[in-house]
Design brief:
With 161 residues, the protein is α+β, with helices and mostly antiparallel strands. It has three domains: 1-40, no CATH class; 42-113, no CATH class; 122-159, no CATH class. 40% of the residues lie in helices and 15% in strands. The protein has helices at 43-55, 62-74, 86-89, 122-139, 144-159, and strands at residues 6-12, 21-29, 32-39. A three-stranded antiparallel β-sheet has the order 1-2-3, with no helix packed on it. A hairpin with an 8-residue loop joins strand 1 (6-12) and strand 2. The termini are far apart.
């Protein structure tokens, strides 16, 4: 943000509103007011909202946009939220066998998505990544999240026997 910009908060909410808003106001820059809205969203929904907000009036780093769209798809996030229609989205995915109509089969809405952050030392992160990749191949699962959940289920089932 420009160092000369001033953020003026007119309203704060104790709890996020239904749409995640925690504060509203405006940014004052060079005598001009720009509407300001602060939200409390998980990283996945925030990425989708940023894509949607910039679709009509912004410019994209095409590589980053493709990466974010792939990430949203990996979370089975409702890609309609990005404001790109199914025909436009086709170009973002490396899996050429995925058809736009396939997106609707296992769609999860943004309210179904919960983000978790794991923090590792660099050595532990490398080991964790290697183990997840190993189990992905072993179990033939594409999604990292599904792989971790399946390994945890198998471990639980194995320990209870």
């Amino acid at each position: 943000m420009d160092a000369d910009a001033e953020v003026v908060i007119e309203q704060k909410y104790k709890k996020p509103t239904k749409t995640g808003t925690v504060a509203e106001g405006y940014i004052l820059l060079n005598g001009e007011r720009f509407k300001y809205r602060e939200v409390s969203w998980d990283a996945v929904k925030e990425k989708a909202a940023n894509i949607a907000a910039n679709k009509l009036a912004g410019e994209f780093d095409k590589g980053r946009l493709a990466s974010w769209m792939q990430e949203l798809q990996d979370y089975n996030f409702d890609l309609d939220f990005t404001m790109f229609d199914s025909q436009e989205r086709v170009k973002f995915f490396s899996d050429s066998e995925k058809k736009p109509e396939d997106e609707k089969k296992s769609r999860v809405t943004s309210s179904d998505v919960v983000s978790f952050q794991l923090t590792f030392t660099s050595a532990a992160a490398s080991e964790f990544t290697g183990l997840v990749e190993h189990f992905q191949k072993l179990l033939n699962i594409d999604s990292i999240t599904d792989t971790i959940l399946e390994v945890l289920r198998l471990a639980k089932d194995g320990s209870s026997q």
